[in-house]
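Risk register update: the risk of archive-format incompatibility is retired. Evidence:
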Amino acid sequence: MSAIVSPQQTVATSSTELKGRWIQLALGVLCMMAISSPQYVWALFTKPLLGQVGGSLAQLQVTFSILIVLQTFFSPFQGFLVDRFGPRLLLSLGALLTGLSWVLSANAHSVGHLYLTYGLLGGLGTGIVYVGVVGLMVRWFPQRRGFAVGMVAAGYGFGAILTTFPIASSLASVGYAQTLTLFGYIIGAVGLIAAQGIKRPPSHAAMLSGHPAQKSAGVGPGAMLKTPVFWLMFAMMTMMSTSGLMVISQMGAFAKDFGVASVLVWGMAALPLALTIDRFTNGLTRPFFGWVSDRIGRENTMALAFGLEAIAMFAWLGLRSDPLWFVLLSGVVFFGWGEIFSLFPSTLTDTFGIRHATTNYGFLYMAQGVGSILGGPIAALVHQSTGSWVPVFGMMIGLDMAAALLALFVLKSLRARYMAAR
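Archived output:
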């Protein structure tokens, strides 16, 4: 005779299983830290790689563009694979591809070889892990999505802090080839080991929360892409990605033009000091505003954070010749920007549910790729045509304020109507 399981026993079992979500969060953070270096320490490799593979700096920088574009534009497909074949297998594959991209890049003798190794393999590998981990956390933490996604996104932001100085030291002592090989093995091994403990939450876990998003648990990407609320979120994430990636890609150039790059602040040159502070605030803001949004609402938090970045960039531009304010306000700018990687995936899953969360976020994450184009080469062309950074900053401030107002006065009501209709 088969055993009969009571509802009370099911809830008790589910509660026990959910205690393991903190382990899943820790493993997710570790996976994200492992794959962060290809993006954040690329600048350390440009000079030695240029001497090895030849070509121009512009040609070499295409490698970085390929990395980011493939990481974002292929994310819907990567998210589908994670949903289809499970997180452990795909995250393991992503970690191995990321590590392999560095190992193979160590033997590159042409720019085209780097495009295929560091760019292609690295972009696919990091994209699988990033989208997979984010999609998993929104399922494990149905009532704390903002905080959980913020924590793993912070892992991606903080991870390079641990590797930047060791990689710089290794480059100085043994050269780029051995450095890429050694850290490629480390990246692949750490990510692979962490991925072995990753698993899906129990199918009934989200139901325990009583979260209202369960009413829309079955919305897939096909239906989602037909809704105005998704495209509004896509436009807003593009706006915010553009402003933040403009600063990331152009900061060295405008710091030099402002005359503050090499000025000492607290005994350090202003530009590297600002970059160090930026990495910290860019990581800190993700769990912080994610936690805030779990309490005061997603749209209210968006308006607060996006408005903060707009104000900080306005003050940054006005005080651009003061090296101390340049350093301090750069940190505030990133504190108002990095939270997009916790707020948008949380809002998306709140709206369209958990069943297709990973694939759905893959489509939204493509906005980051669009922002990298607008904030990188397009912003540079605006500066080139005008001969000034003021119009560029003005455009970015306008995008930040528009996103803040859209969150408060359009997205909030539009999303409420959509969820009420479902």
